[in-house]
């Protein structure tokens, strides 16, 4: 089936997010188009026509990379330090229950793209 983003071509913000996903070892086609669009909306801090910057996209991509692949694969691709940093972010988001990372985690859960080992380890659930 032809996806919406493939029909018209990816926008600049989607291209930025795709590049950031590739950089952390996630093939962009593994992330549904609707998840990408929702992520970009979450990352927008201004009404800039260019959307979120590369740093914001990289920050979100790290979280998705860990959520989708788990610690082992993520650490192998990005290093133990990066894995530990994302783990701290996940723990803080789960503890707070709100905030940008918590919203992205919830988005990934709803999309069904979180690795079972991550769901189990952090006891993630949709309320």
* Shape label: globular
Strand elements, count: 0
Q: How many separate domains?
A: 1
Instruction: Please tell me how large the radius of gyration is.
Output: 14 Å
As a percent range, the share of helical residues equals over 70%
Low-confidence stretches: none
Overall pLDDT, averaged? 91
Précis, in short:
With 127 residues, this protein is mainly α.
Give your account of this protein's structure:
- The radius of gyration is 14 Å and the shape is globular.
- The chain starts with a helix and ends in a 5-residue tail after the last helix.
- The mean pLDDT is 91.
- The chain has one domain (11-122).
- Helix content is 70%, strand content 0%.
- It is built from seven helices and no strands.
- With 127 residues, the protein is mainly alpha-helical.
